[in-house]
Specification:
The complex is a heterotrimer of chains A (450), B (306) and C (291). Chain A is built from 16 helices and 16 strands. By secondary structure, chain A is an alpha/beta fold. Chain C has helices at residues 2-30, 37-55, 59-86, 91-114, 140-162, 164-174, 176-181, 186-211, 220-234, 239-259, 266-278; strands at 130-133, 136-139. The radius of gyration of chain C is 19 Å and the shape is globular. Classes of the chains: A alpha/beta (450), B mainly alpha (306), C mainly alpha (291). Chains in contact: A-B, A-C, B-C.
């Protein structure tokens, strides 16, 4: 209870503090926005710029944003950072007077209605429906994690509500016949590992590392990535050979035996694809086993860097390859805060929440940014106009995580993360060296000795 | 038997009518659907727990089997939804037959073995080795048969049939024989009750009901993962609702679902930040202060609860 | 590979004996199923984590503190909840519901207090590098955890079979009503067993960051499933049975990970069902099958 109060106070303090910084740094973005990426200057926008007006008739008192999060259960550790990141964005917008809503030609305050589904898909389904039918939200955001996102997809579609999907990367959600969804902050699982397999087939193979072991957790997120990688590595003409390819249940918490088995297959490269808990257990067990592989790649050192660093330690991460997300390679944003600004606001608001700053926190914030741009560009709050507005951002919206780009089914194909290698920094810190693709590389990969 | 009909008419019919008309007045139709689903599950659990004393902790196994029976029929046989519903029932029945030997166990042993069985079914279905058959961990999409209004109606029919079954069980010789087995199997056997056959039938009926509930759930939500269909909270909710209302009655589980699931949703919507905490406290208090369920309040005062 | 799997399985199995031990003791004495067991394990993990993170306390010292504090916390919980529960008609079944509620409360409070991120204690705290045992390399942290588990099993065995209160406890296990009739203070004996059961769960939690990689408030469910498998394979109520169950579970799991990794979680469940069907009271259990 007390902790809650403290967190709330901190959040308020942060809002007040962020107000200044926000107003300052978001101005260039606002100017760009006037054009809504399409080059025309909206009449309402000019009016708004000259004098704030009471608004046109029919303007709602607020924009209602519906969202689900899981405060407990297996998805809590990926869902809570997204929720808090989104909440931070909403609070900042409201501190600045709300979000610009084009059809009404003025800023409207945002109201975030976020229910707790407790990682229970059945509850998530009912609450999605609650948001649509009872709360009558203007914009609808799904929970993170494909299992929880999944139930919202048909419900949103049935009610013709456009579903903002922050990080539910399941490829099955996106089809030509469903216009009511877009994936915002993670690349879809089939596309995400593209740089990884390209790297393996080019630089890594050229260095003589051709024997690859794949160990993945059997869930949608990591299983789909493993399947894409497998297909790419098995494509005709591939210089790479897969010598070990096994799935393990996502609840696996002990990898010592598996590491021993992998070593018996004598691979040069080990790819371990799992959730946070899997990666932590794998990297800890690897370090303790005394086994060495020439190259090790896992997902989460780049995704939830500080959680991994705290659990695995500097020496356990040194030399490991991972995706380099905005945590280590952020882009100069045209919309929203830079990484440093966002991280600062996060630490101020949530330092005591027990939710670590990481990629999912950024994903929640970016979800907010997309929402804001959508409101600024949409012709009306009718859901197909909202969709049109979201898709109009594709290829144009540049946030700290890169360029937002959707394919025609609504799957995220931009925001691809480069591949990097971890090097120790200082006493117990780490930093990433980007090693692929060449255009982004900041150094050469260092492979372990044979 | 006439009393059974009267119980059905006084308790079940008003409920069914209310649920049939509710979507006209209340637009969160999925919430209503979940009410129906938990009513079915609670009564299905009642059929085995209330009448025989076996607590199937892994009841969700039948539910999941039904959901996947439905999904597989749609995906591989291009079955119509109604045929797929039949497959859902058959899938759960087959699982029920396979698990019949578990009835030799008693008390917590049965509950835990049943839980393990449900987990085992989940692990088989969600295994990537069976991806071509079940889509493994990648989940199924059944948008081709998605028909929320129709599946709502079918759920209502399943509920009606389940309630009729319970009303019959409470008043027919068979149901009374089952209750005799629950109280004392040895005496019941000596009194000429076919103990093994009786509880096997109750077990299979209970499995069938959960399978049908799973099938109509799959039909209604249409996009789901194995984690969704085999979510342990289905078992736990059904058990909590049944116990809270009072097992072996028709009205008890109904009240249990309406009050507790209603409260669950009210808490979730009004104070989401303390959702889990409040619900946990509530359950503890209920067990401590109302261990034999709501129905016991009336039976203690000499009323017969339908 | 085979030798490594078996040896790891044995070491892992020792730890899982500890995970099941507290659950088993409480069930054996009170015939109630502590569904919140996994969440107590989680609390033990967080206690050890915070003691380490805040004041740098070594997990072996934390484990003593956790044992003492958790046992003391268990006593009031016993008197608040269990006597009332045991008075009910079907207390064995009701306990599942009751402790489901307790589990929800613990997880909710832990989430509010600790947040949802993964936490752990570095493995090197228990000793660095792999330990070579019978020609196989094993993490030192594992071996230490397993040793502590063995010690705990031995102490519980001594408590039950070599102490007076242990004898009384076993009398309650055999028949609660007769124990009551023969003048045993059943509640005092049960409260002690409950406290010890909770303390053992906490102890298992202290070592979970080393054995299970990391801890989160949501970990209880998976821990429960493993603990159930272990105690049922062994036999409900007997610590030696739990040991046997733990070892079988550990070895089976590691063998499956080696040869059919995607099916690794299936075997414990099948094993559990098979054991129950062949010997319904566990491998070492007494015959109490009904009808």
């Amino acid at each position: 209870m007390l902790r809650r109060v403290v967190v709330c106070l901190l959040a308020i303090a942060c809002m007040a503090g962020a107000r200044g910084a926000w107003a300052q740094q978001s101005r260039p973005a606002d100017e760009r926005l006037g054009g809504c990426f399409d080059g025309y200057l909206d009449k309402a926008q000019t009016e708004q710029a000259s004098a704030p007006q009471p608004g046109q008739p029919g303007a709602p008192a607020e924009i209602r944003i519906g969202h689900l999060h899981a405060s407990s259960g297996p998805y809590a550790s990926i869902s809570m950072p997204v929720y808090l990141g989104l909440k931070l964005w909403v609070e900042q917008m409201n501190a600045g007077g709300g979000a610009m809503v084009k059809p009404f030609g003025r800023k409207l305050p945002l109201r975030l209605i976020s229910y707790d589904d407790q990682s229970n898909p059945g509850t998530a389904a009912t609450l999605t429906n609650q948001l649509i039918t009872q709360d009558k939200v203007d914009l609808l955001i799904a929970d993170s994690g494909s299992v929880l996102t999944a139930v919202s997809v048909p419900i949103a579609r049935e009610h013709k509500m456009f579903l903002f999907d922050p990080t539910g990367t399941g490829a099955a959600f996106f089809s030509k016949d469903n216009p009511y969804i877009a994936l915002l902050a993670d690349p879809v699982s089939t596309v995400w590992p593209r740089f990884l397999w390209e790297f393996l087939k080019s630089d890594v193979a050229a260095a003589g590392l051709t024997r690859v072991a794949i160990l993945y957790s059997t869930n949608d997120f990591t299983g789909t990535q493993a399947a894409s990688i497998r297909a790419a590595l098995k494509a005709p003409g591939s210089p790479v050979q897969i010598v070990f390819d096994q799935g393990v249940p996502t609840s696996t918490s002990n990898y010592a035996v598996l590491i021993d088995n992998i070593a018996a297959a004598n691979p040069d490269v080990v790819l371990e694809l799992g959730y946070v808990g899997n990666d932590i257990a794998f990297l800890r067990n690897l370090q303790e086993s005394g086994k060495n592989f020439r190259m090790v790649f896992t997902l989460y050192p780049g995704i939830e860097t500080s959680t991994l660093l705290k659990n695995v330690g500097q020496s356990g991460l040194a030399g490991v390859f991972s995706y380099v997300t905005a945590l280590a390679y952020s882009y100069p944003p045209e919309v929203g805060m830079t990484l440093e600004q966002f991280r600062g606001s996060w630490e101020k608001a949530y330092a005591k929440s027990g939710v670590e700053f990481g990629w999912n926190a950024i994903a929640g914030y970016v979800t907010g940014l997309v929402l804001g741009q959508t409101l600024a560009c949409t012709d009306s709050l009718a859901q197909l106009d909202v969709r049109k507005s979201v898709f109009s951002l594709s290829g144009k919206l540049k946030t700290l995580i890169g360029t937002f780009e959707l394919n025609e089914q609504g799957a995220q194909i931009g925001e691809l993360t480069p591949i990097g290698q971890i090097a120790p920094e200082g006493k117990d810190g780490i930093h990433f060296t980007v090693v692929y693709p060449p255009a982004m590389a900041s150094g050469k990969p260092i492979f372990g000795a044979k | 038997m006439r009393r059974g009909v009267r119980e059905f008419v006084t308790v079940a019919l008003p409920l069914l009518a209310a649920l049939a008309l509710a979507p006209l007045f209340y637009s969160n139709e999925l919430l209503l659907f979940n009410f129906i689903m938990f009513l079915i599950l609670a009564q299905g659990l009642n059929a085995i727990y209330g009448f025989t004393g076996y607590l199937p902790f892994g009841y969700v196994g039948f539910f999941g089997a039904g959901a996947y029976g439905f999904a597989l029929a749609v995906m591989h046989l291009n079955a119509s939804p109604l045929l797929a519903m039949a497959c859902a029932g058959v899938a759960a029945l087959v699982l029920g037959v396979v698990l019949t030997p578990l009835l030799r166990l008693s008390g917590a042993y049965f509950a835990i073995a049943n839980l393990a069985a449900a987990q085992a079914v989940y692990q088989v279905i969600s295994n990537p080795a069976l991806q071509d058959v079940t889509k493994g961990p990648y989940g199924v999409t059944l948008s081709s048969v998605f028909a929320p209004a129709l599946s709502y109606g079918v759920a209502l029919i399943i509920l009606a049939a389940t309630l009729a079954l319970i009303a019959w069980l409470r008043n027919a010789r068979f149901g009374l024989a089952l209750q005799a087995i629950r109280e004392d199997p040895v005496s019941a056997a000596m009194a000429g009750v076919a103990v093994v056959r009786g509880r096997t039938i109750a077990w299979l009926l209970s499995a069938l009901i959960a399978g049908l509930a799973g099938g109509v759930f799959a039909w209604h939500i249409s996009v789901f993962y194995p984690e969704t269909a085999f979510d342990l909270s289905f078992s736990i909710f059904a058990i909590v609702f049944t116990l809270f209302g009072g097992a072996a009655t028709q009205l008890g589980p109904i009240l249990g679902v309406l009050l507790l699931y209603g409260l669950y949703n009210v808490i979730g919507i009004t104070v989401p930040q303390y959702f889990q905490l409040i619900y946990g406290v509530l359950i503890v208090l209920l067990v401590l202060f109302l261990p034999d369920g709501l129905a016991s309040l009336a039976t203690r005062r000499g009323f017969r609860v339908p | 590979m085979l030798a490594h799997a078996i040896l790891s399985g044995l070491v892992f199995g020792c730890y899982f004996t500890l995970v099941g031990l507290g659950l088993n003791l409480i069930f054996g004495v009170m015939r109630i199923v502590n569904l919140a067991h996994g969440d107590v394990v989680m609390l033990g993990a967080f206690a050890a984590f915070w003691l380490f993170a805040l004041i740098g306390l070594h997990p072996l010292i934390s484990s003593l503190i956790v044992l003492a504090i958790f046992a003391l916390l268990g006593l009031p919980v016993y008197y608040l909840v269990v006597p009332r529960l045991l008075a009910a008609r079907d207390s064995e079944m009701l306990s599942i519901i009751l402790f489901f509620g307790v589990q929800q409360i613990i997880e909710a409070i832990a989430t509010i207090a600790f947040g949802t991120s993964e936490r752990s204690i570095p493995g090197r705290v228990l000793g660095s590098g792999p330990l070579h045992l019978l020609g196989q390399a094993l993490p030192v942290a594992w071996v230490v955890s397993a040793a502590v588990s063995l010690l705990a099993v031995a102490l519980v065995y001594l408590y039950l079979y070599r102490s007076r209160v242990g004898t009384l406890t076993r009398a309650v296990m055999v028949n609660r009503d007769e124990a009551l009739a023969s003048g045993i203070d059943v509640h005092r004996v049960s409260a002690l067993a409950f406290g010890i059961g909770v303390a053992l769960a906490g102890l298992a939690g202290v070592f979970s960051p080393f054995m299970l990689g990391s801890a989160t408030p949501a970990m209880g469910g998976d821990v429960n499933l493993a603990a159930f498998a272990v105690i049922v394979i062994g036999s409900l109520g007997d610590p030696r049975g739990t040991m046997l169950g733990g070892l079988i579970y550990g070895v089976a799991l590691m063998l499956m990970q080696t040869y059919m990794s995607a099916w690794a979680n299936l075997l414990p469940n099948l094993l559990l069902i098979a054991v129950l069907l062949v010997r319904p009271t566990g491998l070492l259990g007494r015959q109490v099958r009904r009808a």
